Amino acid sequence: MATVQVSEAEKVYILHGIRDDLRVDGRGCEDYRHMETETDVVSNTDGSAKVTLGHTAVLVGIKAEIRKPRPMLPDEGYLEFFVDCSANATPEFEGRGGEELGTELSNTLYKVFNNKHSVDLKSLCISAGEHCWVLYVDVLLLQCDGNLYDAISIAIKAALFNTKIPRVHISTDDEGGKEIELSDDPFDCMRLNVENVPCIVTLCKVGHRHVVDATLQEKACSVASLIISVTHKGTVTCLRKVGGGSLDPESIFEMTEAGKRVGKALHTPLMNLLKQEESLGKTRQKVGFLG
Amino acid sequence: ELLPGKNTLVWKFVSGLQRPGHGTYVDEEKVDKLICVRPLKPGKSHSRICTTETLEVETNSRLDSVLLLSSVNLPGGELKMSSPMREYLQEGDLISKDRLCFSDGALSRHTRSLKYGKSHFFSLCLSWVRGGKDTFHNLPCGHPSSLANNGFVWLYPTPGQQEKLGLYTSLDLSDREVISRLRNCLLALAAHKVLLMTPVFFTVKDILKPEVMEEIVMLTQQKLLEQEG
Hints:
The complex is a heterodimer. Chain A has five helices and 14 strands. Chain A is α+β, with helices and mostly antiparallel strands. In chain A, 41% of the residues are buried. Chain B is built from four helices and eleven strands. Chain A binds chain B through residues 5-10, 12-13, 16-17, 19-20, 22-28, 31, 33-34, 54, and chain B through 48, 50, 58, 90-94, 117-123, 167-168, 170-171, 173, 176-177, 180-181, 183-184, 203-205, 207-210.
């Protein structure tokens, strides 16, 4: 992870600012930075989205493939995650430098998204025990400026919304074998229900308070942070603590409450935005991930 | 400003003389290769300590520069160091100094005083700061700031207050708001590649939005044009 150096005096300034609910860039403790979302940015994927949050930029592409379902869950499809930490983000990711962060991120994403409460995995099943759709979610970090989890989760939700899986028909031939036929019509496709897909809210404990969407400087002042995934109803689906410091139970409770509040407020504008973008159709001017 | 293909005055040295003055003449030449322009009079710049073992400092440039032990002024006018370096300077600490250039292109730095760096706020503004003799400015809104030649910016509370306040005491909310506003304005101007700055008043948070940023930049550019015309 990209690190910045902060001197003692700066730390004090940041700490006092958070205590007074006025952060260095003028935000309150529960404010996000400016966020931009665009879907359908990569043409050779089934669904893609790009999210920029401050200077953090994330690109997510989803590809669907037909595979055998997992033996334990024969009537469900599944998701696979891969996070690529590009050396474009920071020079530290060069070579194998980003591998550790990549695995950590993908493991957390797997826990948050790959369950039937978040994504309707049953709808990914084609024939129980034999064929199912597997969604390969590839995350590419283009720029790191703190708060990767939130940006990635929003990008994944947008990309899942954008995903179009072709419809398949199963026909039985004379010998009793099953044959899968893909629909010829490119517009005959299945959409995923993303209503219950959670968004991740990262709360950093700085001093006696906690902040949402911490910048790298604020991250350097925080001892520990809490990753909370929240659905549109405000249900917490996953909770994880990262960082070396400790958190007392009372502040964990406070942070969860704040996370719920912030996370719940995040979903409605996001869904409205995605639907609005969808309704523009082909007339929309695309910015793309280089723009 | 030097660009390839531009006609430049070049000192031609005659018979072993290494310095402009007697025995040299001025000639105009076209620059067709990469040259290094060494400033006659180096300006002041802020920087951040990287390592205390070798006293390397980050100066927002390609290479880190070295802080010579002989050029460090110890606090309280001490002449000899009585405790380890880390008690005086720590990794991440900020300092402000004059820049000296060695002949091989290495940068050496000279600490003026530790007082400058120990600031209340420091923000980074890349290459869009106009270099000048004076780094300390009083902005039109009456707030002081320090724009160093290497692009580091230091915004600090009004001078009267600064002396009253110790290093670790907190600021008024209004002062803090002004500093945040200025920071966002400066970053917005830097993002739109404008050299000068004139703060326009918006609510602090709004300046993070690109539309507002553009508006500020447009207004500033207009003001600049008016001033020139």
